[in-house]
């Protein structure tokens, strides 16, 4: 029997999910062609917010890579747009003059960002936030410009604003209403959200109507209807979306706001269907993936000729993806004369809950600050549960039962993918799954926004009991492989692999070159496993590490020489001052790690600056020990009983240069007043009466974490020995790019302590560390001594005679 010809227009989340569902039902039944205007394979659009916020990379958000299309015999045309459909002849035509005949046609053309129809929107520097190109544009602008304005304080606008702040821009959010996320939150939650985001650095202009984008060819600012103006170098429009339906209109497929479909996603043209944001079902056009995936499932069954339930619409729930802010909303959110509420507000903890009830049934909910209950409430809303059922469930939790344990099997765990507790438990039990990644592979739970990952982990724990270990979760190191960090390291050791390319080829990477996530990680793992023989692959490193200086937004570099323990002397200061004068360094800044940062150095001047300074590199750019901050201690301070500076200097001299999974910061304070801030460092030492306390896993950055007490010892030698062992244990067991604050939580402080407490372990860890340290030299000196490095990286810089 000849295969049915399926054409999908739109290589996005909804359409491709529908194809996946079809392939699950009838794997060898179709000849599939997919057209996508974007030049990429299908990717997770939702995670663009996380890319902008620096939590993931574009390489890592691919949902189905090129191989997937090939393996499933799908003909994919990317960067190609369908321009016309002849529904009588059943043929589609593309902008590359291609004609493809279909038996069944799926339209999944998604949406376009809504661009306000005001003067000046065509100026350079105005963008929507919809695809990879928009995301890259914003990242590029953040390198050149300072001020961003985001129009629209909805989900998209706030996620974009958070990303732009993370990229170092100043951000104004302009919103039409007086309340942020006015479509998803009540006024109380909205005000709490505003306060929280203001604390993160966002500036809000509420109740503002933008009238014009001002500037010449490039945007310079915005003018509002009240006459006020603000400055902006980048304007992001996030005021909603409009279904992408021009193709349907041109091809005479009936539309209203979207392409009109019935409960089986059929248009009224034979063999033509629509799913996703371009479709209008019972008068509703959806803009979140959960309903689109439900639609895809219904349509897949229809095309496969299987009797299935109709699509009857979806109760929407949303969650904002901004770190440090938990907001959830579902169903009806506005109170009326017919509604009653269960409301609670905890000012101290910053939590708010408002559950809306009508005729004794739960119809909507808004949560702020603590959203753990979100999915449970969504299930109650979906089935219009009686409020007494909710109150009973709450009592169970108060009695100590875990949230997932008390959930009924039909409760949704993953809202995006419609996966219930029962589905996941069944998959865990029948297929022996032990990790969140495996559950994701089998059930799709956590495959979209990732907001349900912790619930999936809880469910694994509750189903497997002691057999489940949170610290043993296997995540592939990137989308080029299914192997986890542990698998890869075990294979490197067992097969004696020595190059990144060799690892990729022997371990069956799906890409021959790897990606920006796995290349630096493999380079680190190979060096860690075999420090004496491995030759560091410079090209696998991030740009700052390749050039041994931090690139700045204007393309110049910053140079930070080492100042052990934050201690300096007139000779060093004189040299820095002379170099700053000679190379016109525009800014000298004392860093938080107690040394001096020279900003604005041109790339070609870097080697000359290093030569003139003749000081070791401070590795301010590296995944390695950065600084050991010290307090003045017993030398001068009247409270100090120990020599914090000498200990800090000794630690810095011992550990400098060797690579770690992520940057590593230390501090030594000579008394509990803690002037060197030892409590927020990767490893911090605090002097107490006749002893030193060692704290670990602290972090003073975005995710603030107080360090935990690892142990208390008597002498500085013991501190050095324990620190060496701890440092090496982190090197050997952490995932590349995992800060110690995350590592400590993943491994568990007790298990780390058990390793470090063992004397033999400490000796062996320090021996392996010493081995790794033995082959390292100062990278600035190394560059100055190599004509090839100077030529390749710094464009044949002439270094003054006599400095090599
Ligand atoms: C930054 C961001 C964050 C988001 N976060 C969330 C979230 O947390 N949770 C959530 O549920 N939703 C979120 N969304 C919304 C979610 O991404 C969309 O609902 C979903 O991607 C829509 O899927 P779709 O397949 O209908 O459309 P799309 O994913 O837009 O795919 C449509 C594709 O069709 C292509 N196309 C259009 N016309 C043609 C043509 N004529 N020929 C060929 N190709 C064509 C387009 O180029 C596009 O690639 C977010 C969206 C964005 C932009
Ligand atoms: N976390 C998530 O679930 C998430 C994240 C990002 C995007 N999305 C989806 O992407 C789509 C687009 O998101 P969105 O936030 O643009 O849409 P939206 O419709 O949810 O919000 C747009 C906001 O812009 C405001 N607005 C309208 N006109 C304005 C004007 N002239 N000036 C200032 N503000 C104005 C509206 O009041 C509204 O709150 C939606 O479907 C959304 O659900 C979801
Ligand atoms: S931490 Fe204690 S010893 Fe060190 S400077 Fe502060 S007060 Fe003095
Ligand atoms: S809730 Fe979004 S992936 Fe599960």
From TrEMBL:
Coiled coil: none annotated. It comes from the Bacteria. Residues 622-759 form the Nitrite/sulphite reductase 4Fe-4S domain. Residues 5-281 form the FAD/NAD(P)-binding domain. Residues 317-384 form the NADH-rubredoxin oxidoreductase C-terminal domain. One of its GO terms (molecular function) is nitrite reductase activity. Binds 1 [4Fe-4S] cluster per subunit. Residues 551-614 form the Nitrite/Sulfite reductase ferredoxin-like domain. The keyword RNA-binding does not apply. [4Fe-4S] cluster binds at residues 631, 637, 671, 675. Pathway: Nitrogen metabolism; nitrate reduction (assimilation). One of its GO terms (biological process) is nitrate assimilation. Its cofactor is [4Fe-4S] cluster; siroheme; [2Fe-2S] cluster; FAD. Siroheme binds at residue 675. Residues 412-461, 477-526 form the BFD-like [2Fe-2S]-binding domain. It holds the Pfam family Rubredoxin_C. The keyword Iron applies. Keywords: 2Fe-2S, 4Fe-4S, FAD, Flavoprotein, Heme, Iron, Iron-sulfur, Metal-binding, Nitrate assimilation, Oxidoreductase. NCBIfam families: nitri_red_nirB (TIGR02374). PANTHER family: NITRITE REDUCTASE (NADH) LARGE SUBUNIT. This is NAD(P)/FAD-dependent oxidoreductase. It comes from Peribacillus asahii.
């Amino acid at each position: 029997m000849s295969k049915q010809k399926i054409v999908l227009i739109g290589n996005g989340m909804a359409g491709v999910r529908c194809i996946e569902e079809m392939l699950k039902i009838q794997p060898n039944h179709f000849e599939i062609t997919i057209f996508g205007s974007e030049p990429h394979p299908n990717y997770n659009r939702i995670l663009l917010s996380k890319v902008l916020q620096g939590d993931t990379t574009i390489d890592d958000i691919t949902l189905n890579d090129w191989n997937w299309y090939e393996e499933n015999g799908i003909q994919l045309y990317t960067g190609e747009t369908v321009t016309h459909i002849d529904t009588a002849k059943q043929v589609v035509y593309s902008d590359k003059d291609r004609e493809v005949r279909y038996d069944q046609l799926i339209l999944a053309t998604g949406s376009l960002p809504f661009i306000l129809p005001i003067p000046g929107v065509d100026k350079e520097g105005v963008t929507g936030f919809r695809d990879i190109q928009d995301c890259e544009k914003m990242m590029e602008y953040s390198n050149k410009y300072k001020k961003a304005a985001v129009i629209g304080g909805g989900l998209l606008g706030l996620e974009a604003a958070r990303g732009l702040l993370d990229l170092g821009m100043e951000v104004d959010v302009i919103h039409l209403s007086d309340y942020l996320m006015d479509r998803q939150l009540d006024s109380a939650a909205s005000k709490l959200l505003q306060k929280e985001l203001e604390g993160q650095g966002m500036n809000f202009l509420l109740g503002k109507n933008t009238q014009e984008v001002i500037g010449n060819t490039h945007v310079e600012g915005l003018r509002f209807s009240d006459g006020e103006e603000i400055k902006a170098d980048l304007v992001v429009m996030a005021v909603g979306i409009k279904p992408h339906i021009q193709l349907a209109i041109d091809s005479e497929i009936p539309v209203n706001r979207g392409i009109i479909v019935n409960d089986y996603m059929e248009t009224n043209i034979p063999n033509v269907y629509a799913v996703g944001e371009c479709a209008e079902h019972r008068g509703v056009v959806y803009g979140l993936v959960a309903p689109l995936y439900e639609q895809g499932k219904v349509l897949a069954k229809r095309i496969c000729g299987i009797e299935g339930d109709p699509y009857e619409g979806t109760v929407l729930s949303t969650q904002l993806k901004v770190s440090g802010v938990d907001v959830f909303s579902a169903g009806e959110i506005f109170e009326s004369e017919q509604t009653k509420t269960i409301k609670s507000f905890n000012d101290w903890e910053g939590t708010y809950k408002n559950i809306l009830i009508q005729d004794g049934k739960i119809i909507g909910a808004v949560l702020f600050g603590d959203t753990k209950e979100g999915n449970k409430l969504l299930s109650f809303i979906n089935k219009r549960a009686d409020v007494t059922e909710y109150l009973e469930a709450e009592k169970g939790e108060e009695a100590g039962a875990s949230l997932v344990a008390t959930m009924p099997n039909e409760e949704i765990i993953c809202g995006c993918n419609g996966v219930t507790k029962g589905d996941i438990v069944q998959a865990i039990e029948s297929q022996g799954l032990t990790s969140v990644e495996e559950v994701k592979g089998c059930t799709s739970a956590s495959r979209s926004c990732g907001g349900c990952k912790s619930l999936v982990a809880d469910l694994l724990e509750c189903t497997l009991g002691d057999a489940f270990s949170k610290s043993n979760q296997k995540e592939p190191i990137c989308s080029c492989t299914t192997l986890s960090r542990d698998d890869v390291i075990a294979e490197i050791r067992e097969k004696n692999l020595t190059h990144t390319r060799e690892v990729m080829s022997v371990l069956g990477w799906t890409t021959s070159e790897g990606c920006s996530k796995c290349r630096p990680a493999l380079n680190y793992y190979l060096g860690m496993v075999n420090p004496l023989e491995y030759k560091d692959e410079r090209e696998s490193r991030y740009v700052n590490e390749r050039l041994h200086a931090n690139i700045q937004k204007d393309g110049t570099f910053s140079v930070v020489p080492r100042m052990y323990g934050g201690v300096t002397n007139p000779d060093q200061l004189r040299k820095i001052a002379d170099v700053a004068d000679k190379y016109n360094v525009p800014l000298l800044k004392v860093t938080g790690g107690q040394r001096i940062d020279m900003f604005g150095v041109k790339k070609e001047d870097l080697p000359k600056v290093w030569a003139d300074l003749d000081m070791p590199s401070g590795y301010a750019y590296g995944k390695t020990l950065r600084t050991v901050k010290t307090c003045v201690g017993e030398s001068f301070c009247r409270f100090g009983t120990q020599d914090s500076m000498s200990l800090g200097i000794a630690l810095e001299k011992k550990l400098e240069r060797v690579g770690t999974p992520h940057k590593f910061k230390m501090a030594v304070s000579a008394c509990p007043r803690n002037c060197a801030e030892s409590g927020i460092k990767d490893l911090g030492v605090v002097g107490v009466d006749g002893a030193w306390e060692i704290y670990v896993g602290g972090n003073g950055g975005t995710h603030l974490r107080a360090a935990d007490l690892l142990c208390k010892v008597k002498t500085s030698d013991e501190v050095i020995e324990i620190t060496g062992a701890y440092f090496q244990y982190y090197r050997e067991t952490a995932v590349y790019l995992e800060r110690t604050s995350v590592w400590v939580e993943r491994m568990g402080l007790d298990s780390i302590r058990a390793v470090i407490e063992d004397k033999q372990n400490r000796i062996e860890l320090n021996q392996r560390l010493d081995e790794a340290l033995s082959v390292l030299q100062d990278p600035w000196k190394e560059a100055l001594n190599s004509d090839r490095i100077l030529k390749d990286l710094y464009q044949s810089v002439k270094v003054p005679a006599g400095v090599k």
